[in-house]
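To whoever is on call:

I kicked off a structure prediction for a single chain this morning and the downstream step that reads the tokens threw a length-mismatch warning. I double-checked the sequence; it's 233 residues and nothing unusual in it as far as I can see. Pasting both halves so you can look.
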Amino acid sequence: MIQVKQFPYAADNLGYLVFDDKFALAVDGGDPTAIRAFLTSRKLELLWVANTHGHPDHTCGNQALTRETGARQISYPDVMRAGIFKLGAHDIQVIPTPGHSADSVCFYFSNILLTGDTLFNGTVGNCFSGDMRGFYESLQRIMELPPDTVIYSGHDYVKMAMEFLRSLDPEEKRIDRYLVGYDPNNVFSCLKDELMINPYLRFDDSRIEELLRKKGLGTADSWQRWLSLMSIE
């Protein structure tokens, strides 16, 4: 069985180890010490080190992990060429999700999605690439996955996200329910929950359209509504 272990580091970053009973893949492994200790405790061999994107707060552990374990770092071009690569008997699918950065990808396996800074639990990343259309299409690609897909993201912004949603829609009663499932020691959500509450995935929700119209923002179509949401500070 393939599993995932979350490793918090820095102020709010979240790194991951994907593993079966023998082998492991580190994704955004910013805490090499904790990851190495876990590998040793489970007698796992780290095969690869990969990243959801190339920003330094996500790649900061790469050198230590490859140097101290002998694992191979998978570059962005290699990740894109592979499309699907194997961890033991398990397939890990690479989903290109440009937007936050031009090299953003998600890793999909066993109904789990590692989203990096593309999709957070309750919100989305900034569009540092400037490719707003690409970001919009990346989110649509994620939205097409099974609703019970488990979302593990690159940062813990849950409380901030819910504060923003409450300021946008003080009448939103599902915020408290969403926060009940929030565990700062293991941050995740299901896609169905994100489709229910994350405003940046609810651009076709009539309630969101109403709120945007009250703010005098564009609501002509899905694309305009999403752009309007992204413009709110």
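Update from on-call: the warning came from a stale cache, not from the record. Cleared it. Sanity check on the structure: The two ends are 42 Å apart (CA to CA).
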